[in-house]
TrEMBL record:
Highest rank taxon of the organism: Bacteria
Binding site for Zn(2+): 106, 109, 127, 130
Region annotation Disordered: where it falls in the sequence: 1-22
ZnF start-end (dksA C4-type): 106-130
Localization (cell): Cytoplasm
Protein's name in the database: RNA polymerase-binding transcription factor DksA
Main location class: cytoplasm
Residue span(s) of domain DnaK suppressor protein DksA N-terminal: 28-98
Pfam families linked to this entry: DksA_N, zf-dskA_traR
Keywords per UniProt: Cytoplasm, Metal-binding, Zinc, Zinc-finger
Listed InterPro entries: DksA_N, DksA_RNA_pol-bd, DnaK_N, Znf_DskA_TraR, Znf_DskA_TraR_CS
Length: 143
């Protein structure tokens, strides 16, 4: 299914379901697909900008302090892109879930995650209650 228009998760029109509308119907799935594809396009554009930046701005400074500052900046940028690479993987997995008609339901308990939560975090796999419980368990084990 080709989608001409995409929306960034930072800039979209919230979905307003009709009374009695079925959860995760075709229109809702298309809404989230547009958001995810827009997010993916934004991230890919950042990757392209980073590659250009690294190629164009790589100078061989004579001063070791200048060289170290430049390398630290490049390292920070590459770490950011690595986090975004992981996010891209999650976005692709989420798009697959939409394609398989298995999107919008909690992986732990099976209930609806909710349109507003998914608009806030389109890659969410847990409902608010299960996510809260998961975070509490993590906090108890880790701290």
């Amino acid at each position: 299914m080709a989608v001409a228009e995409t929306q960034s998760p930072d800039n979209f029109t919230p979905y307003e379901p009709s009374p009695g509308e079925e959860y995760m119907n075709e229109q809702q799935l298309a809404h989230f697909r547009r958001i995810l594809l827009g997010w993916k396009a934004d991230l890919m554009a950042e990757v392209d900008r980073t590659v250009r930046h690294l190629q164009e701005d790589a100078n061989n400074y004579a001063d070791p302090a200048d060289r170290a500052t430049q390398e630290e900046g490049f390292n920070l940028e590459l770490r950011t892109r690595d986090r975004e690479r992981k996010l891209l993987k999650k976005i692709n997995e989420t798009i697959e879930k939409i394609d398989e008609d298995d999107y919008g339901f909690c992986n732990a308990c099976g209930i609806e995650i909710g349109i507003r939560r998914l608009e806030a975090r389109p890659t969410a796999t847990l409902c608010v209650d299960c996510k809260t419980l998961s975070e509490l368990k993590e906090k108890q084990l880790g701290g």
